[in-house]
Design goal:
CATH class of chain A: Alpha Beta
CATH topology of one domain in chain B: TIM Barrel
CATH class of one domain in chain B: Alpha Beta
Oligomer: heterodimer
Number of strands of chain B: 11
Strand order of the largest sheet of chain B: 7-6-5-4-3-11-10-9-8
Number of domains of chain A: 1
Radius of gyration of chain A: 13 Å
CATH superfamily of chain A: Cobalamin-binding domain
Order of helices and strands of chain A: EHEHEHEHEH
Largest sheet of chain B: 9 strands, parallel
Shape of chain B: globular
CATH topology of chain A: Rossmann fold
CATH superfamily of one domain in chain B: Methylmalonyl-CoA mutase
Chain lengths: 132, 582
Amino acid sequence: MPKKIRVLIAKPGLDGHDRGAKVIARALRDAGMEVIYTGLRQTPEDIVEAAIQEDVDAIGLSCLSGAHMALFLDVVKLLRKRKAGDIVVAGGGIIPEEDVPRLKKAGIKAVFGPGTPLGEIVAFFEKAAKGA
Amino acid sequence: MSSVRRGRAQRSNRPGDLKPPVNGMGDGDARREFEERLRVWEFTTLRDALARHPERRETFVTTSSRPVKRLYTPLDLPEDAAARIGVPGEFPYTRGIHPTMYRGRPWTMRMFAGYGSAEDTNERFKYLIAHGETGLSVAFDMPTLYGYDTDDAEAKGEFGTCGVAVSSLQDMETLFDGIDVGAISTSMTINSPAAIIWGMYLGMAESKGVPWSDLRGTIQNDILKEYQAQKEWIFPPEPSMRLVVDTFEFGSRHVPKWNTISISGYHIREAGATAAQELAFTLANGMEYVRWGIDRGLKVDDFAPRLSFFFNAHNDLLEEVAKYRAARRIWAREMRDTFGARSPRSWVLRFHAQTAGVSLTAQQPEMNIVRTTVQALAAVLGGAQSLHTNSYDEAYQVPNEKAVRIALRTQQILAHESGVATTVDPLGGAYMVEALTDELEEEAYAYFDRIAQLGGVIPAIRKGFFQQEIANSAYRYQREIEDRERTIVGVNDFVVDEQPEVEPLRVTEASYRAQLARLRRTRKMRDARRHERALDRLRKACEGDDNTMPLVLEAIKAKATLGELCDVMREAFGVWEEPLLY
């Protein structure tokens, strides 16, 4: 039996909007993945620590408060610092179009805005785990 | 057959209630005659039509996945329908809280606004007032909502992104500079630190020379729905509830026209709840606040008139209208019969509505203007006292000026051009709306029973009951979109391949620096001993039973910041950790 894909769904910063994160967590679980949900109000340090401890293939970050630039980029930087740069990171939330290229350039593999089909997100994590 | 199952809904029939002889149908003979006619219709006209043109789908459901019948008729109304519906301005207020509703004056057009620094938002407020808004509504940024100053490490990256940063009395004074707070009402979306932010508002009014007795407005101050849905909590439930009751008590004595709470279904719905869950959880929370007020020894008629509500206006127009009507009827009955309120001012459920942020699409964002119009119409047909309309660009950012103006104009068109504000409760008596009103009311009572079985609202929060119910509904809704059982225009149908054009709105680095400078100045210029003494006194009050409000005010005047006040409370009360589930 192939190893289950392990994904950390995380809410960085102070944002309390957890509807999207929970829906994604459940969709990934229903697609057969092992999902770890961090809960709210995690610092980038907390998230990176959890990702390493849980030995995940990928991290999904959700932020709707507008703090994504600072927080998402910190997660990517810290992962590299901890030599865990192979963990794939994707993000979602209320993210202006003009921020997307900068996030991608910094190493966020995908940015999912409102209305993204769940199937697309599931497929992304499946592919990401294979590549890892 | 009537689809209305009688349960506790019948409680409204007490002596003294309006009880005219008519029902939806007239006397028994007429009812039987109509039943017969409907049966014949089903076997002739309808059957033939279905044979030629089958319906589009097997079942039709609302936005909340509630099945909808093909046709509603007088038979869907109970025999005492007229009494249950009543007349506007009288118990049970199904048709509205005023006898003349918008013929007297339109609802308050109150646009939720805030970003960047106090200066940035002050400018936005003035822009909105200049374009005809009639009430202010403050959106605070995440650090403020969580009780952190802008320069706190926890606030990294969050300054002004989804609201305005207010860390001190000086920020509050800047926010309302040049605005006559004695003349315009202000709503502030603030919960865990509500007492402190309200204290800053009161301090600001005092420094302008406006007496507290002239102030009108609302603090959201609804902590229960934070644990359930919005998740901007700081302290555990019990000390948080104590702070809420402190504001009830203080407000009823010193700020008599202020709504000390806005019991909010909005966020419960945004987090994924159905209309019935929004209705039930909000009113269950409302009753919990009333119990805590009474337990404190307050007279229900002293504080209940200052309780206000806040509901979502989602896509499904008729279901939303029914929700507001059911809410008014349940609240009136519970306040009068369960809590023994004598004053009609305690019975009326006054509410603000906001269109559904969650319904806004990033795809073809201009279509959000249309969605918002339909949702706003629901709020108006449902008898809202005030209304916020979302801007079309909010799936991307805090709205830009043009988008906000369109949203405000939407309300003005509804008020002045659509004609719906010319008569009271225009949908009253519509068979479908009345039947749905009854159904929602009944579902709310079923939830009240479940919550009671779990030991009440706070134990149910600890067990994750509300959170799980909401998460389940959110997931079901998303699956319905995925499976294309539900069409979202531009998202899973009628899709175009285009790059949306949204004029960006950015919080500037200059705003951030200005805010940090003001905060530094505030800390430097204050009398250190007075500041320390005030915080000590607040700490003692938190540890004891005295009302905290006077000490919060004293500390604010001693130039203590939001973060410093909250740190004292965090130390005294501890912090909440929520049960993890999805």
